[in-house]
Amino acid sequence: MLEADNGQSTDTSGTSSIAGEDSHHRPAPPVIEPGKKRRWPARALMLSVPLALAAVGGYLWLSGGRYVTTDNAYVQQDKVAVSPEVGGRIIDARVRENMTVAQGDILFRIDPEPYQLAVRQANADIAGAQVSVATLASEARSTGVGIAAARDAIAYAQIDLERQQALMQRGFTTRARLDEAERKVEIAREQLRAAQAEAAEASARLTTGSAMPGVNPAVAQAMVRRDAAALNLDRTIVRAPVSGRVVQAERLQPGQSMVVGLPALTIVADNRSWIEANFKETDLHHMRVGQAAEVRLDAYPDLKLTGRVDSIGAGTGSEFSILPAQNATGNWVKVTQRVPVRIRLDSRGTPKLIAGLSAEVTVDTGKRR
Prior knowledge:
The protein has helices spanning 2-25, 39-63, 113-170, 175-205, 217-234, and strands at 67-82, 88-93, 100-101, 106-110, 237-239, 244-247, 257-258, 265-280, 292-297, 304-312, 338-345, 358-364. The chain is of the alpha+beta class. The strands form two sheets. Strands 1-8-11-10-9-12 form a six-stranded antiparallel barrel. The chain has a four-stranded antiparallel beta sheet with strand order 5-4-2-7, with no helix packed on it. A hairpin with a 6-residue loop joins strand 9 (292-297) and strand 10 (304-312).
């Protein structure tokens, strides 16, 4: 038992000796207080948030005024109101609402029969004028014959007068016969003057003006009426003046009577679009033509368009309204006015847009504090 105890004591001593060696070479772990372990992340968070806010605020302050934005903006496109140039009843309608047409396509046709009759009447007027000219030419030739006959009559009357004068001197004639011979000479001279006047009148009616040399004025007038009638006949076919999409075509029905100057439909030219952005008057201080702009459409949230400031309006929207504001009253309240600014879109990558779409426009004025 004693030996066992000694052995056990020896083993315990050996174990203690080994543990002592391990504890001598391994450093003891540091003792960390529970509150001190979480203090540095909290301090870092508390410092980073104010710094981030200060940085964002500084950036906004420095860049403030550089970008001006408005959501009072809309897509604009050229709109052409098509109205007939001649009146009449529609006999054929070739287009309908929202139909795409190309320039020169037939939109509708007006009854051409009245205008065809006008062309035939004008042709008849030309033929009548030509006959009148031929008659005047014939009369002019006949007046030449009348002048020659009047001269022959004067010559014969003059010979008879001289004979009567010779007989009167010898007393073989009477005073009455001498007076009759003198009267015949005067009548012949009057006939010559009348024939010459008729010839001058006929020649004047055949004279052509410098505006249309070689063409009688009566014939020229008839030809002009014929051309006008042919033009009206051609206008019974109404064609598209531009390419685009047809709108407001409700009145375009066969049998509908068209009135000259009254719009029958409208064509929206969708090949060129721009943005009309209404900016506050306080945002225009640093805005200039040519500055870059970014456009976003409410209809296409993922679409971003780029453009340039094309022009700045010459007046506010209220200035050109039908009923402009009258502020000469006692209850006047100042309202920030808006000025229309035209944004020209970059043609590259611009899709076909719809007139009137709402947009948001941001213009980079390039001005920093």
